Q: What sequence folds into this?
């Protein structure tokens, strides 16, 4: 589970870091926003499953 969590965090942080480096003023494209939203949703789902299991 930790490997999957680390992979998902990496998949979320890489586009976020790329966005931060390009320009703080630039508006993100809808594809970039949906990718980050999906990453957050999957991380939340995985965290919720861990809480329900009692880990």
A:
């Amino acid at each position: 589970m930790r490997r999957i969590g680390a992979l998902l965090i990496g998949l979320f942080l890489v586009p976020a870091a790329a966005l931060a480096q390009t320009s703080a003023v630039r508006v993100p494209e809808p594809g970039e926003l949906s990718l980050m939203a999906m990453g957050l949703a999957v991380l939340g789902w995985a965290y919720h499953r861990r809480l329900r299991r009692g880990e």
The radius of gyration is 13 Å. The chain has a mean pLDDT of 73. Residues 12 and 37 are 9 Å apart (CA to CA).
